[in-house]
Amino acid sequence: MIPRHLVIGVAAMLVLVLSMSLYLRQMRRRAAELQATAADARPVAPPASGPTETVTLYVADDEAGILRPRSAQIPLPGGRQQRAEELLRALLGIYQQPGSPHPLAPAADIRSIYLVDPGVAVIDLNAPFADQHRSGILDEQLTVNSLVETLAVNVPGVRRVRILVEGRTRETLAGHADLTEFFDVTAVGQALAEKARQ
Amino acid sequence: MPFPATKKTLAALLSALLFLAAASSGDEKHLSVYSAVATYSLPVVDRAGREYVGLFELLEPLGRVSARVEGLHWKLRFNDADCDFAAGKTRAKIRGRDFDLPSSFLIENSRGLVPAGSLSSLLPRFLGTSVNFHESARRLFIGDVITHVTAQIDSTNPARLVLNFTGPVNPTISTEPGKLHMVFTRDPLVSPATQSLSFDNRTITQASYAETNGTAELTISGTAPLMATFSNNSRTITVAALSQSMQSAGGAPTGLPPGTSPPPTTENPPSTQSQVPPPIPPPLLTGSGRRFLVVVDPAHGGDERGAALNDKLAEKDVTLGFGRLLRHELDIRGLSVLLLRDADTTLTLDQRAAAANAARGVIYVALHAASQGSGARVYTALLPVEGPGNGAFHAWNGTQTPALPISQGIAAAIVSELLKQEIPAHATSASLRPLNNLSHAAVAVELAPGPNGVNELSSANYQQKAAAAIADAVASQRVALGAQP
């Protein structure tokens, strides 16, 4: 005769197997749905519109350890906030191209930019921007400097910049660059000018 | 029950402070080791009337080493050699063969201690190379690393003593009335043919050699104040009376308190001599009498791994090894060092800043490592441009502001020394905590791969070069910072 505890054990395992297979089935369905959504290239929001302007993007160069000004022609909306977002997305586009001088993760994105008077800009990055950023003082500082300088030069009146990740304060970008404080646009500009003189 | 993180931190800091106190004790015995791979010193401890050294610490800079305790046995693996030592026994097994120690092997806190007297026969079993041990002076020469010196008096007016070395040297120089002392801590200098030479000269009368407790010392005696000048890429030291030297150097050194040595100068050389002055050991005492403490902070640690430099190498491990090497390099230059992290412990940025500020150090050096780029980067704090002052109150994140110009000077000096070691380097600023929280000079050094790629980051040789450059730069700032060792 089969002992009672063995029967209970086998029954419990069968229930577990059954529930696991149901869960797996559900997960597969969700994954298929997500894949279909990702493959859908139809626009969900209108593209940035406005006159095309020549702007200066400050592009990080890992090899040289500096920012290089690069002219770009991009359509810029009239509002300051949308203008700031388009600028940084254009910058991000450069970093996400193959052979970029300062590669960033393909999933990295600027969630939003808030311009708060007097003179404060808040850049909200998405989680992959920080989570998949390469760790190192130079790498992280180049990213920060590039965002701050591009914003400060092209959006008049920005004097201090704060960087958030998913709407929250994060200690560092990827282990080094401090994100708990405001970045002073003048100080960043002076540091870049000093570096350019070297 | 897990040991609380704060207690761990306190324990680590206490250990570091105790180590510092022990290291700064004048009575501590040292063993200096000279090899082609690294030059370093180790503490020597007395047990049952004999001197002992830690075998793991001795072998660590020379190759891959690991050790474990199994009961009374201490098993060591050095490169491809397996060894078995037993606590309280004199017989050990090295590469499968018996080896007899002159006295018992000891295990203390998982450290394996061997009698210092056994090193000349023990080490060749591991290294497969000749070892020359000056036991009474505690100086160990591994392989063919010895530097010889010859002395020649030049009696032409003005008289001078020319000391020619077979390799570059960098002694600490000090003077007392009628004597000039050169202490060689890092240089594998050995005795000339005779330990004392007398000269038939009225100004420079004698040169003598002595070695003790891991150092060698050359003492030049004379009837006038003497000073030394370097030339020939630090292979030649010329000793002459102070007034003559000052004339040749074009002016007198000023501002030196009595009893201190004028810094050695580089001669205005003919074309065969080096135009680059060697690292200059500054006077041992300065006017302010402030203690010169260097706080070395290997970044990350414990739960925080830092950057993944490759599949196996974590930034926290590289910075710890680099920090230990830098401590050693500073130590042999006679500087007091506080290593904030001497184990794989977690320290928050605020804890690091608080410990460094409380130690009242003169220079804080944070160490980082990165897999991108090459050479080294030296950072100072990126601080907001000064707004209106807040009187006597300082914001925690702007604590560095008054010291920033000094920090930038030190960063430039470190870059200069790194370039001399042929390590590409540049200085810049970064928003990197805790640099902005420190009340004294503070820099961060980020070591990037050398010409041989990321794996070089863990190479003792590469780290040693960088550490020596940083230590030279820091030592050169003693006078500027008005501090004493």
Protein architecture, described:
The complex is a heterodimer of chains A (198) and B (485). Chain A folds into two domains: 1-42; 52-197, no CATH class. Chain A contains five helices and six strands, in the order αββαββααββα. Chain A is elongated, with a radius of gyration of 24 Å. With 198 residues, chain A is α+β, with helices and mostly antiparallel strands. In chain A, the strands form two sheets. In chain A, strands 3-4-5-6 form a four-stranded mixed sheet. In chain A, strands 1-2 form a two-stranded antiparallel ribbon. Chain B has 485 residues and is an alpha+beta fold. Chain B has three domains: 26-142, Copper amine oxidase-like, N-terminal domain (Copper Amine Oxidase, Chain A, domain 1); 149-249 and 258-266, Immunoglobulin-like, CATH 2.60.40.3470; 290-382 and 395-484, 3-Layer(aba) Sandwich (Aminopeptidase). Chain B has eight helices and 30 strands. In chain B, strands 9-10-3-2-1-12-11 form a seven-stranded mixed sheet, with helices on both faces. The longest helix of chain B has 20 residues, at 5-24. Chain B starts with a helix and ends with a strand. Residues 1-6, 10-26 and 244-289 of chain B have low confidence and may be disordered. Classes of the chains: A alpha+beta (198), B alpha+beta (485).
